[in-house]
Amino acid sequence: MAALPEVPSLGKVLVIGGCGFLGSHIVSLIVKRHPQSQIAVLDLRTNLNRNASPIVSYHDCDITNLDAVQSVFATVKPDVVIHTASPHFNAKSEIHNKVNVEGTKILLKAAQDSKVKAFVYTSSASVVLDPTRELVNADETWPLVMGDRQPEYYTTTKAYAEIAVLEANRTPSDFLTCAIRPAGIFGEGDVQLLPKMVTAFRKGQTKFQVGQNNNLFDFTYVENIAHGHLLAAQALLHTHSILPTVPLDSERVDGEAFFITNGQPVYFWDFARAVWHEAGDRLPLSSVWHLSDDVAWAIGTLLESVFWVLGKTPNLTRAQVRYSTMTKYHSIEKARRRLGFAPVVGLDEGIRRGVGYILEQEEKEKQKKGQ
Amino acid sequence: MVSASSVGYYLFHPQELRSIIQWKVWHNPVHERDETKESETLQRCFHFLDLTSRSFSAVIKELHPDLLVPVALFYLVLRGLDTIEDDMTIPLEKKEPILRNFQDLLEKDGWTFTENGPNEKDRQLLVEFNVVIEEFKKIKPEYKVIIKDITKRMGNGMADYANNAEHNINGVNTIKDYELYCHYVAGLVGEGCTRLFVEAGLANPVLLKRPELMESMGQFLQQVNIIRDIKEDIDDKRRFWPKEIWSKHVAKFEDLFEPENKEKALACSSEMILTCLNRADDCLYYLAGLKEQSVFNFCAIPQSMAIATLDVCFQNHDIFKKNVKITKGQACQLMLESSQNLKLVCDVFQRFTRSIHKKNNPHDPNFLKISIACGKIEQFIESIFPSQKKPEGAAGVPVMTAEEAAKKKAEEQEAKWDMIYMIMAVVITLVVITSSMLFVAWLAGARFDLAFGQAKQQLGELFGSGSDAKNTIAPSSDHSEL
Predict the structure, then answer these.
(1) Is the residue at A184 inside a domain?
(2) Which residue of B356, B361, B364, B372 is the best one to mutate when testing the A interface, meaning the one whose CB has the most A CBs within 10 A?
(3) Is residue A37 part of a domain?
(4) Higher-confidence position of A18 and A286
(5) Which of A140, A216, A347 is closest, CB to CB, to B396?
(6) Closest approach of chain A CAs to the CA of B268, in angstroms?
(7) What is the total count of domains within chain A?
(8) Among A87, A236, B341, B477, fewest CB within 10 Å belongs to which?
């Protein structure tokens, strides 16, 4: 598909979880790119990451409460729903099930009942990640991995929700849905990836490196993911405008899932070292200790058992060993072709912005303490 | 020929020695030229081919018979052009018209050129250029058109550079200029060769519709040469590294060679290598479009050598001090691996890509970009030769959700009973039909008692003789007497 023409407005857009890390970036990108849209943000708490633009309104609401959700839909009357809400990865299983599965179904029902045209769901690239195999240039034809084959309950619930969203496509016939599967999201405001890496640098862990470092890994700057969501919304609106004509199977966006990454897989430790360099690390490569996978695994096992007795989590765990030595990257050909997707911010620029943001926050903290 | 140092080297690198021997002993040319059928002038042409190019003459001489002479002549023509362009003893007024009209000189019977300086190493080729012209007459007109077209464009490009005073004093300025220069001296060769291959029906015509691929083939080789020859070129007062790149690292081009600027020089060479490395996946893509083995070898061998050279130059400060090369053993190893199939060439590319990646310095300004370039090559190889089988399970069909799992279990239970009922129904039907038929037969007077008795007897005989046959022959003959 060729690049879509400039669209000043996406109509009335409801961003679920618009105060979260990804959600707030989506809101800013709509404000920037489609300034004639009207944006409503629905979130559990809307005091964080608020956008100052007058076209954005905020609604406190729990998505597991059907009545509350329906009343927000009745007020906003959205054309487009972008659903990015998800609990923190480490939350309890019941929460994951309640928010990701039940919450998504409630949102779908509310959307189906209120003439929403397009529903874009933020899934996760790990829905195809099987604990026993690596992901080498995986595409969307890979089967979902969930239930007893999926050790991460969070991922199982993301997959269930994705299925629910895609099954709801064209029911009713003018309700269109699709799913975006981002991989390795990072950027300003991320709480998982960059802060952990910067902390590792501060603790002096840059001296170690596990494995051969031949494993390519997808990391994605948050704005590129936001960009993917907006392209998907635009594509669904376009499909909606030509109803009841159905696009060719090879061009279809509704009812489909898309991997969205930076399209720049890099060797795992290279990404970490680029982040560390940005944070101030100047350790020469020759001074880095290279641990083989097996040795690291053994140490991880040992540390985990010792720390288990102490009731703490060690600096090196088996899960970390696995993550840093596995290949995990995807093909984004489908998104390139059907959504016209191409990353708008390169990996190095993304790291510069993301680490710059962390250092800035730290500086602010310091000044506060100094006062 | 064999120096003491090389004996020492191969003593400690037996693997490389093995490659040399393997190549010399086992390599069978795909095609061999038949010298007995060649005219005297053609033999002279091949003589010049050997003289002017060591690396290319071997692969050219193994080319498919349809392409052998055209490609050899194409090479000699461009070599002749290059010998005029290179020679600083020829005044510009004299040089320019020759460069711009070289394509017409190709059809001027008996044309030769004797005014090259005495130090120009290929001057003899131009002194006897009439042999090339003589042979050029004989090739297919379609090939002539291609060779003349490329010669014309290259000659004009060279003349433009020769006229450009700024270029002559300061060397190449921007990255765009640098790539344009490489286009004239190498990208055009890529185009010419591709058109010859397609004309001969030995390459996929689609290659002509993706011109960036053949451009990259030439650019990749030329850029590697420019990176590797930095020292040699500066000694000859030539500069091909674009100012746009080196000025980010040092103030004056000569500063790159100062020992105290080692880090900066390395960062600068990394950026040059990055620019080049970004073309590697295009080259592999191009190779996938070649149909014939000799053409594949002709194209793949130089590319493998180029990525290997890129690897020895990467993070190697010696390139600013001397001419860095891959060893003869490595070269033979690469020729063995690059004269078979695309998969092996991809393995070569992956090997050197990873070697480059291993040496990548996290504090280099282009560290992550180089890592991305390496990742891009690996991902491309993965896209044509997937290392992993897609897990079974139809496209995107979900395994199932929790409630669906329960539902499916119930369905399976139901299906199981359905199956049991079905089998029972079939059995009952059969029993009913059979018994009613038997009953009708009995009514009609069938003697089941006799039939049963007979059947029993026959069965007894059958089993009786059957079991006897398994024993010795003698008892069975006893039976027959009964």
Answers:
(1) yes
(2) B372
(3) yes
(4) A18
(5) A140
(6) 18
(7) 1
(8) B477
A264/B372 touch (CB, cutoff 8 Å), yes or no: yes
Residue B398 distance to chain A (closest CA, Å)? 6
Q: Convert the pLDDT of each residue in A89-104 to its tens digit.
A: 888 888 999 999 999 9
> Which residue range forms the structural domain that includes residue B445?
421-466
> In the block, which residue shows the tokens 């490659």?
B19
Note whether residue B118 is domain-resident. Answer: no
Structure tokens that stand for A334 in this block? 């489908």
Partner-chain contact B391 A133, CB within 8 Å? yes
ipTM: 0.91
Instruction: For residue B100, indicate whether it is catalytic.
Output: no
Q: Please give the helix or strand (H or E) that residue A290 lies within, else none.
A: strand A289-291
Interface test with B, best of A135, A141, A150, A259 (most B CBs within 10 A): A141
Contact B374 A267 (CB under 8 A): yes
Q: What is the mean pLDDT of chain A?
A: 92
Residue B302 within a domain: no
Question: Exposure pattern of B70-97 as b/e (b: 16+ CB <10 Å)?
Answer: bbbbbbbbbbbbebbbbbbebeeeebbe
Nearest neighbour of A163 by CB, restricted to B361, B367, B401: B401
Question: Are the CB atoms for A264 and B375 separated by under 8 Å?
Answer: yes
Contacts of B354 in chain A (CB under 8 A): 214
Which of the following is catalytic: A158, A312, A366, A369? Answer: A158
Q: Which of B157, B388, B221, B319 is nearest to A138 (CA)?
A: B388
Q: Are the CB atoms for A268 and A213 separated by under 8 Å? A: yes
d(CA A158, CA A97): 9
Cβ within 8 Å, pair A281-B391: no
Checking if the pLDDT of B285 tops 60, the result is yes
**B5-21: per-residue pLDDT in tens?**
777 787 778 788 888 87
Structural domain of residue A146, as residue ranges? 12-190+219-263+330-344
Q: Is A86:A157 a contact under the CB 8 Å cutoff?
A: no
For the question of residue B113 being annotated catalytic, the response is no
Residue B482: is its pLDDT beyond 50? no
Contacts of A91-98 spanning 24+ positions with Cβ under 8 A = A91/A154, A93/A153, A96/A153, A96/A154, A96/A157, A97/A153, A97/A157, A98/A64
Q: What is the mean pLDDT of residues B37-47?
A: 89
Distance CA A332, CA B281 (A): 17
What is the count of structural domains for chain B? 1
Residue B338 lies in a domain: no
The verdict on whether B181 is a catalytic residue reads yes
Q: What is the pLDDT of residues B126-162, one digit of tens each?
A: 999 999 999 999 999 999 999 999 999 999 999 998 8
Q: Helix, strand, or coil here: A132?
A: coil
Residue A39's domain is classified under what CATH number?
Answer: 3.40.50.720
Residue A302, domain member (yes or no): no
Q: Which residues 384-443 of chain B have a CB within 8 Å of chain A?
A: 386-388, 390-402, 405
Q: A interface mutation test: which of B277, B368, B381 has the most A CBs within 10 A?
A: B368
pLDDT tens digits along A283-315: 998 888 888 888 878 888 888 888 777 777 777
Half-sphere exposure of B246 (CA within 13 A, CB side): 22
Which residues of chain A have a CB within 8 Å of the CB of B369?
Answer: 348
Residue B73 in contact with residue B139, Cβ under 8 Å? yes
Taking the C-alpha atoms of residue B454 and residue B390, their distance in angstroms, rounded to an integer, is 63
pLDDT digits (tens, 9 = 90+) for A108-122: 999 999 999 999 999
CA distance, residue B220 to nearest chain A CA (Å): 21
How many A×B Cβ pairs under 8 Å?
102
The per-residue pLDDT for range A146-180, each reduced to its tens digit, is: 888 888 889 999 999 999 999 999 999 999 999 99
CA dist A60 and B211 (Å) reads 56
